[in-house]
Design brief:
Alpha-Beta Plaits; two-stranded antiparallel sheet; 2 helices; 29% helix
């Protein structure tokens, strides 16, 4: 089962200890074959909307930037519970904030 874990931005700047802990976590998950992809997301982006035949493209940043994802990890595990456990471990490393987990279909 594949899951997309997304991290919302925080006001806290990461320090060297956090970078080291995250690097070790990423290395562990990669070696185990669990981590398929990971990365940070540039704030802003592009919003695309459609109504009938009309497609509107709006460049960010957007007022709701605090609600947007700041980073992601695509993982492959045996169950939803395993995905939640990995997200718990991630949250313990990065501290206060919010993450979402969604199963990927297809």
């Amino acid at each position: 089962m594949r899951f997309l874990m997304m991290q919302k931005p925080t006001d806290t700047a990461p320090d060297q200890k956090l970078f080291a802990e995250m690097a070790a976590f990423v290395e562990e998950l990669t070696a185990a074959g669990v981590l398929l992809a990971t990365g940070g997301l540039e704030p802003g982006g592009v919003l695309m909307s459609s109504l009938g035949d009309e497609i509107t493209v709006t460049d960010g940043p957007f007022a709701e930037a605090k609600e947007a994802a700041a980073g992601f990890a695509l993982i492959e595990v045996g169950s939803r519970e395993e995905a939640i456990e990995l997200a718990r471990r991630f949250r313990k490393i990065v501290g206060d904030g919010e993450s979402t987990i969604q199963q990927v279909f297809g």
